Fold these 2 entries.
Entry 1:
Amino acid sequence: MRETREIAMEETVPRRQSFINTPMRVLRAIGTSVLLVMLFAGNALAQQIAVTGTVTGAGGGPLAGVTVRISGTETRVLTNATGRYTITAPANGALTYTLIGQKPAREEIGGRTRIDVRMEGVTYLEEVVVTAYTEQRRADITGAVASINVESAARQTGASVLQKLDAVPGITVVASGSPASRSTVRIRGISSFQNNDPLYVIDGVPVQDSYINWLNPADITSIQVLKDASAASIYGSRASNGVIVIETTKRGASGPPRVTFSARTGLASPTRGYDDFLINNALDYFQVVKTSFTNAKLPVPTNIFGDPNNPTVPTYTYAADNTYTTKDAFGRPLNVDVNKYSYPNSLIMPGSTGTNWWKAVFPGQAPVGDYNINVAGSGEDHTYGVSGNYFDQRGTAVYNDFRRGSLRANTQFTRSKLTFGENAAIAAERSVGGMGDPTGYAEDGIVGKNILMQPVVPIYDINGNFASGKAGGLGNQSNPLKFAYERRNNINNNNRIFGNGFAGFQALQALALRSSIGFNIRQGTGKGFNPTTFENSEPGTTNGFNENQEANLDWTWTNTARYNKQLGSHTFNLLAGQEANKSTFRHLEASMNSFKATDPNSLYIQAALGDPGTRNTQSYGSQSSLLSYFGKADYNFQDKYVASVTVRRDGSSRLGPDHRWGTFPAFGLGWRVSKEKFLENNKILSDAMLRFGYGVTGNQQIPSGRIISQYGGDLGDTYYDIAGTNSSIQPGFRQTKLGNADLKWEENRATNIGADLAMFNGYLNVIFDVYQRNTNNLLFDPALPATAGFANSPIVNIGKMRNKGFDFSVGHTGDRWNATLQGSHYKNEIVSIDGVQNFFITNVKVRDREAAINQVGYPIGSFLGFKTNGYINTQAEADACKAGSVQGFCEMGAIKFVDINGDGKVTNADRTIIGNPHPDFTGSLDLGYRFGNFDVSGTVFGSFGNDIFDAQKLFYVFRMFQTNVKADLLENSWTPTNTNAKYPRINENDQNSNAFSDYFVEDGSYVRMRNLQVGYNVPQRFARWLNATRVYVQAENLFTITGYEGLDPSLPAADINGAAGDIRDQYRGVDRGTYPSSKTFSIGITTSF
Amino acid sequence: MKKATRQPMLLGTALFLAAGSLFGCKDSFLTDAATPQGVLDAGVLANAAGVEGNLIAAYRALDWTTGLNGGQAAAASNWVWGSVASDDAYKGSDATDFTAIMDVERYDWGAPGADGILDDKWKQVFEGVSRANATLNLLKQVVKDSPAQLGAADQAGIEGEALFLRAHYEFEAYRMWGNVPYLREDDTDVRKASLQKAAVATEILKDLDAAIAKLPTTPRKGQVGRATQWTAKAYKGRVQMYAGNYAGALTTLREVVASGPYALQPSYDQVWTGFKQYENGKETILAYQASANDGESSGNNANYGERLNFPHSGSPFGCCGFHQPSQNLMNSFVVDPATGLPTMITNPTTWNAENGEYDAAKTASMTIDPRMDWTAGRDGVPYKDWGAHNNTWIRDASYSGPYSPKKNVHEQASGAQSSVGWVNTQLNSVNIHLFRYADLLLMLAEAEVEAGSLASAMADVNLVRARAGVKAQGPGTSTATIAVPITDPSITWAKYKVSPYTSFPSQAYARDAVRAERKIELAMEGQRFFDLKRWGILETTLNAYVNGVGGGSEKSRRTFFNNAQAVQAKHNNFPIPSREVLLSTVDGQPRVAQNTGW
């Protein structure tokens, strides 16, 4: 199903733009309604009869939810699931039938008591969609514009609508399972080294921020994705990564307020847990340790498990020195006096036969609830829609949730030639636990920490405080449950006011003027507590607390004039406009350490509460502005030939004084072949449109102020105790950022060729596009050698990138069943970097290792590492390796690395590209079937050909920091008799095999049942007072088919920023321990009255 | 009806007129928002305060960990490069922790991990050079544009200090890598080509001579952290020694000893200390002035790069057990009971035979140099005033032995400990010596040996030994008993003895004696590796350290040495970080070429 605009005969209620588009129609319609009302008022005594009937679709199947209205009145009913309706109407009146996606129908009653109606679907090309500053018929669009299936998207539970977009051809979306996580949306590949977020235009207000959890998905009526430059370049400056146009204008049909209520509630569990494939038994784990030390010819540690030949789970893994008197022969404390326990200096921790750390932190069964109420209606000169939402999603991890309340009011008034109104949303979000997407280190969050804990480590010590691996050999990590628990009061609040106020004026019959002021106001607060960890092997001995406040104000003033003219067969639509945008941001943060009391009520930054010497405050901010002029001309000849030309000129405050202004032209051509004689009444191609588009878009998404060199200083960086006082420092300054006064626009030139085909009389709709996008003058900050100093390199317009690809959709929409297959492919290639280098290594690391490289001729963020060639299997090989000092560790069972440059040594120079995080193909299949009152629908999503760099192998295969390991490690590791093993020999001294190599790379392809829903339309006899009630059960992420051995092949993008902005695209597909997707079962109800 | 239509018309027209006039090509709308927020521009700093501030930042890079991976590799003490890469110390901790340093320890310097942390060191020294050059440039600008801002003395002083600092940073690069680029303030090409090693030394000496000519004899503003003419002169002697110019060094160092302000601290415990009254004494030529509790909330100024080098979990410090003294080093402290001289000198074939742990019981009746217990923590022996060291202080003795580092550790009573940071017990304000007078004296002794004046050499060595014999580690139960006379009856864990040499019978003997003294006196201070390299005995010494010398081998003690690479001629220079070679590429040729063999 495709979202189309509902156009009923009498209720061509002027929507925000439609009045501009079809001014006369509006006026005529209003006039007609008035006339009809008078007519019927005069006929008040006309005979009332009961009319019944069935509404069916073109294929003969019943249509439910069709609005049947007595023409000219506010009396209406809806058809039920079998398409039946009954209405009492004047015998000489008329009935109108409207349903989204169907052409409106009208029947004169003429005394009939039974009227059956067959409705015709709106063909794809006749759909009206909201694109740039206007609404357009598909048939008039020459660019690549995809519509989101809002209904299918609604089958997914999530805070952000963006999570639901990856079933759109040409779009990839990644997000973690954490409730408040940010979704990363990419349209047709990646065009820049940093910040490839598309531009969002929500109710006409541009937003360049991919975090839109504040927007209630239920408010959204349509989402259009402008994928190519000819469609997007009207948004010029910020459109190089595509534009997503979201409309929330959910307004009522004319008549009394119609109330729609929907509720959904469910339970979520992680799709998979580490307990599936890590060791959960303490003694099993010891066998790995024993093997590792024995193979290294090191004495096996006995301090935990005692006699290596007869290991036992210890009574105590750790007891402070003063709590016991003697040790057994293996160095384990004996005669522990539990009464000497005192926190934090004299801790005593028991041994565990096997702690399931995963279950401790991810117990599953996390509730989710989503509640919406919407009231909508309209009158002669106004329309309105008011909605409220409460969304509450617990994380599948403990102490982690996201809640949102939002309120929206969209209204519009018409008075003569003037139209005005507003779309406004207020949202309050609250997320607890602070578990966003991970940054560089896997150990940062509870997921990574989970791997790091051995099964012998207990969750609690003997006194109920959190325990950890304090004793030697138990690793260096923190208890993940404690980590989550201590952050249970880490609350981030985001309050948002978003919307616009607008006024339109129909100056002439052909000329419409419009002005809109959009605003995006955000107030954010956050706080974070960092506990002491005396129980750790590497204890943290001071606690700390920080809090921050930040405010964004972003306003956009848009003025447009639109002129429509028809001269015979020629139709012209002209648009001219001007836009000004200003963004300001300010952030204030403070922190202090050593809090005396750590309950949430004591966590404020006040001298008396902690150590005032550690109090630290700072603030920072930014501002930027854009000024734009744009114009668009559309020409249509007999609906057969369509042409459109766009020019936008943008000025940006971020760029050099001489290069602020950029001009972005585009054009598109369309040919509706099916209107040609030779295709008239063609049986196969019932409707066909061929499109060609070319255009230039820009990008200036870099931090503000980088046109001049900047200086600064920091207490821990440039300040120094030159006088030798030991406790006071004198101010110092250094250059912090190098500026470039010549910064200019990054340009993206895109070509698109596409076709929209309706085949077999509309039985199949096919959309197909191929494209190429070339980025020139790519803005980024190529690294300088360290001889330039540590200041951030200047951002320069160097570099080129290319994306080629295709996307398609093949769909059938019938009365009973519908199916849509969508697919996308892109190939990203770096064409040049800076003219000198042909590669640079991403400065994002796991531990101290680099995993990704950007190299000319390869896609952005390709995996970097050594090639491996099995293991060192014989003593002769080991001796040769050792004699030549070929690699760092040469014993049997170690991974053998390939000396690519042939210099006899394995060094960093031998690293090469070992994988590609980008999928060859992503696709989804959306299916729906309806029988009687039941309907079933579901989506399967698949990603194919992408590699995953499983950095977690550092831990669960190579046991870095004595972490937990895979359950089959011992069984499947190298031994002299098992040389064709899955894992190298377990050897404590082998700290070389864990060098990043293709051993870490796996195929990340997967197919996932994204959602499955079974619905039941409750017959009215069961709920007489309700007009239309539907109940459903649904399952999300029901199953996943993948060869990937890690936790979840659906990886989120890392939340990583470089000096020149967001650089997450340089680091895709690296698994650093991410919050897994959720398997959610829920039930829901939608009803209206 | 007419009225109703006219009003909106007026309204609409007004709206568009307003919009047009406000934003009609108003570039100010863009320029107003172009200013970066919360930063300083060059103009704000173009004055005396700005120049002084740039100079402070140039000093701060002496120990600079900000933005580097933990910063260990860029720590002022050079513990990774000077100690772990030599026979002084192991990486420590356990097998899996910080394996990049294990690459260094096993001489596998081309390995990815080593390559990464070598780049940290490279970044630190060239950030230092860059800050010094920024100071010089700003100074020139201020002197030219607003001459009244700085008096002549300050102008000369600032220039001298900045030149000195540049020489210091370039010297660090020189002794690490040999062939490095030399960047001066007027260089605009950051991809400047490397110079050959000898030419780098010439450039450093040129800068030091220029600094000597500009610098005052006492620290400017009375601030002890600043370089003086004497600092630069002492440094010149050091660079001459590194360049193998013994004759030149002899002249320079003799002048510093004869006329300079330096002397040995009265006792050895006052050299590495958290007690403020002993810091910046006469022995300090150049030190990183650490500060703790100075308002910086992470402890970045409090020896952040040393923070792993404390005893582990059972100890009062908690973490992390890195930089552990080697058994070879411990054996070096053993003294021949009869002569009171190191067994390294008296028993060259057996001195390193002991594989067992030197705990208090074992050494109770052994004769050892008191400097052992100022250098290393060992079981049963008081650890300054923190109580007796015991085996729970060690992270994984089976991996890296039973000893802890000690010199960088503050005394509990000194108040030098930080109250902030990840683990505040591991951060302190103990100054890190970059150059101290005992080092200089022993260099002078070396120069005397090479000049054949063996008596003078012996006198210098004996000065150092005499001071070492003043105080030993005491029970440490109070501030007064941290250091006690070496024969104090409260010492039950060793017989301390350190006697003067009575004769240097030959030049070869003298050379060995001076070198042995440097090993003992400067142990764990990040000098050893560079000394071995300077003496041309790097390969023989380190291969012998691993495979056998003096009756013992590290390979038999620590299994990880079985995977050590053989030390070869190429090891005399660290490999240049691959990132820097790549980024220096112009027209397909790296301007900073990789060192031979790497």
Note: The radius of gyration of chain A is 32 Å.
Entry 2:
Amino acid sequence: MTSTTIDDAPFIEPSTRQRRNYLNDEYGVLSWLLTRDHKRIAILYLFSVTVFFVVGGIFAFLMRLELLTPEGDMFTSDTYNKLFTLHGIVMIFFFLIPAIPAVFGNFILPIMLGAKDLAFPKLNLLSWYIYMVGGVFGVIVIITGGVDTGWTFYTPFSTQYSNTKVFAITLGAFITGFSSILTGLNFLVTIHRMRAPGLTWFRLPLFVWSMYATSVVIMLATPILAITLVLLMVERVLQVGIFDPALGGDPVLYQHMFWFYSHPAVYIMILPGMAIISECVAAFTRKRIFGYKFVAFSSLGIAFLGFLVWAHHLFVAGISVYSAMIFSFLTMLVAVPSAIKVFNWTATLYKASVSWQTPMLYVLGFIGLFTIGGVTGLFLGALGIDVHVHDSYFVVAHFHYIMVGGTIMAYMAGIHYWWPKITGRMYPEWWGRLSALLVFVGFNLTFFPQFLVGYVGMPRRYHAYAPEFQVLNVLSTAGATVLAVGYLLPMLYLGWSLKFGRKAGTNPWGAVGLEWATSSPPPKENFHHTPVVTWEAYDYPAFLKAMKETQDA
Amino acid sequence: MAQIQSQPNDHETYTGHAAPHHQASLVSYFVIFFALMALTVITVWISRIDLGAMNTLVAMVVAIIKALLVILWFMHVIHSPRMTWIVVISSFLWLAVMFALFFSDYLTRAWNIY
Amino acid sequence: MRSNPTLHDLQHPGHEGEEGHDEHHHPFLQHHFEDLGQQHEASTLGMWFFVAQEILFFGGLFCCYFIYREMYPAAWKAGSHHQNWQIGAANTIVLIGSSLTMALAVWGAQGAKRKFTTLMLVLTLILGGIFVGVKGYEYAEHIHEGLFPGSAFTYVQHDNPQLTRGVELFMTFYFTMTGLHALHMIIGAGLLLWFIKRTWRGDFGPEYYGPVEIMGLYWHFVDIVWIFLFPLLYLV
């Protein structure tokens, strides 16, 4: 246990800030659009994903407005179908899947490994451009009338009956998938082949373990989405019966193929969040994570088991009962590694010197909300319960607890935790804490009522509902408003901090990790000298000592 | 430049060397080629004989052998580091998992809808 | 941005002394790598990861194929009889031949045999071109017979009309599977052209032949896909 606190660790002083860093190294639009620097590419992604987050959020807000009243009086059902479809597509494909890997993975991972860049910098830039092309398809589809199939594109509605731009959006998602694949590929090779001297596997930050597991899932699952979308496009264009029962095809086969990717996709979304949580828990408790190896291997366990459970999305779709039983059992198993992580993070808090900065508030929110989301996933994995609550708001609440209460909270934690490193500025702490509180309260007010209303029978994807559900829906919409404010404030104060925020030093949190051994913002090549790692993971005394020696040298 | 003191010997943190030098013999490529030719002839010949359900199995076994020849020798996996083996094996393993679990549904649907 | 090295630069790196120093001046060493060895290992591993995801991509398609084959065995057999197995077998031999020439090209690049390697790459390109050309001929035949799925499907299975719809489904898989395969070959052909140029320029030698090797990995993978496609589509 270290005796220094965050405020008096010796190397925090910003006086040694580098004059030249990756931000001011080159100027001009082209120096950004043609950059190979992983840090600049991360910033490009940061802007893009934020725009899509706002777009997806607007769709959600329109839906919540409609749901204030039991009648479907604000939009037609066709329009409402488009709203929830586009909300899902934008949030999942253009925000949740790329966000943490492409922003924090890109920026922080090479620095954490002591590398000068990712293994394939040009491929990294290509990834962003591919993502933007896919995003442009998405925007065009939104502007020209949208899609109404649900983000799941179930057949035969999507292939035979829908009158909306299914082909275009499918192509857009297909293209965006390649961005994901290339990023995952880049991460895997970088982690395997570009670690600094002395950085053995078990000295790696847990962030790296989780990003590694994420990348494995990306590489193995995304191609299945690609082929599924190809078949969807073939069927849409040729009007043949690959998935259409009237023409001899099996619509459940489509669901199998789709969910074979989309279930691992939820692990692509949560594992990076868990990566951030591990880092922040270590940083704000000033301790090595309890059970380091358990947490490291649980990431791999989640990645592996996550591939074996997809048909729990098909329990009532017409698969055989025997198959359903197998998948139900496997679904129960996948909760185990996630639980291991939660227990270990919590154990780390015990007798720790905890400081309640903004990132830590988001972390605590994550741990609680992810647990609720995960446990309700177990409920859904039980066949009998699923028959009752499938396709109801119970399911909606479950995945929003994980995706928003989990992933987005972790994303916010990461933004605040690494903001000083990325920008060289501190955000205003008071506003950070206020926003975290608003997000937590707003989130629970939005989504907890949805568990209740779903359990008693309100179906999802309906814009009209039975009048007895109204109170809970009004509460939910009120919560959404608070949540929106909670998300809006950081956009404002983080922007403010770029010009007026307190300048940050090398290691404002006094945390362990190679990213805290270089200046804020880092120089273009990340380190002036290739670091040699002699400390174990999260070994505070050894790291602080090594840093002091570097500073004195 | 960095001092590379006491490197943990796991081959994967760089130790500073040039590209791998192992070069397979020229003859080995031709041997594999003729083996592939022979297997192609065999697979066509067997397909002309009606073995019922076994036809598919035999054809797949021959195809797998041909694929193995290409992977191990043409793609140099036999001389490649362990990581390459892990990547190749994992991808086929995942495919096997996919096939197994997909068919766990399709083969246990007792009703005859088709 | 590095300017293109001349042949002279490559043949005369300009430094006597220890091995290690030469590499820092090697014109194709990318700055974020410590040395050529790391670069080679990283590139090869990267290509293998790419091939792995391609295996999953085609594998998913094969999975759907097998499921429908299990559901409609008679239609699958009927559909397969529309494929000319002699042409398919000949094409298989052509493609495996191109795999041989590709492997020989990698061997040549590693030995800095510039002319031999270029010749092998050109042969690979030609054989690949023959393959795609033959496939184009087959496609034209199928379309002519009314076997292209969708609104152009005019074929009727006369001996067993109930199989017609299943045959159309088979043909959908036929065109999707071989079409994606051919697309990969065409992309490979484009890459080969670029590699022919680089090889003729003298870029490759024992210390730097990685790009040719990873081109080989891609090409061999495409060959492996065909090794499975041929019996599954032509020899049911």
Note: Chain A is about 65% helix and 0% strand.
